[in-house]
Amino acid sequence: MNRTIGSSGIEVTPVAMGCWPIAGMTSIDVNDRDSLATLHSAFDQGINFFDTAYCYGANGESEKLIASALGSHRNEIVIATKAGIHWDQDKVRHIDGRPEKILLEVDESLQRLDTDHVELLYHHAPDPNVSVADSAVAFRQILDSGKALAIGVSNYSIKQMDEFSSVCPIQAVQPPFNMLQRDIESDILPYCMEKNISVMCYWPLMKGLLAGKLSRDHVFAANDGRAKYPMFQGEEWQKNQDFVDELRKIAEEVGKTVSQVVINWTIQQPGITVALCGAKRSFQIEESAGGFGWELTAVQLDKISKAIERRGKVITKAPV
Fold first, then answer.
1. Is the pTM of this model over 0.85?
2. Residues involved in catalysis
């Protein structure tokens, strides 16, 4: 059931808990009590892989919560964190790929996580003012020191991966991917399959759209950032709801929820190693955990493929 990160020998469950929501930066109604309970629930459901970042929280809230909830299970879990993005005192986000900054962030992340190493460390995003090869120098140093057992990259192009890997080996990459956002199938996925690089996809539920919980007449709260995306607006919203209705019929046939069907489809796709499923409440991660440990049949996969084809091209450009 578990899968290996690249050639590292590190084994992870095919569903990971994405720990951005518990940071409380863009998610609404977040509190420490529920966040800690969610982390405990993920572990209790058999998830061993927890994905966070230095910038998940203005002051590392996500990493601190992981240490608090799961510190006593440190030898039983796999932690991935990321370096290269931080918030200033005014909560303005900055991308900073300077080697000296990367080294400082990793040391602080380890302190927050109350550990001497993480299993997987990503470069969170390329810095337009620093070559990825220069950033990679820091990651190579961290890898050689044992502070990270494997290195990955996030939001990278193939050209950037080639440049980074000339300095530091890459074991994992983290791009967006789901039923309606499949651009990586034409380039990143084949590249990673050829080079034995694990693909840890985020947005498998398309920011909750594919979870099957949002009604057609759903009104987003004023502070819910999802409303800015085309996929949640107008005609695109209605087309996506039609698609979810088709998934709902398949889910009823399988005896699973819509999100469980979506997650299972995701982790069955060639080259996909892990689906990163964000959660801020126990019931959310418990449902996501039900997306692995079984498989959709070939007939069911074919029905989904035809539904995706009927849906057609999706407008998903993120807001500036």
1. yes
2. 56
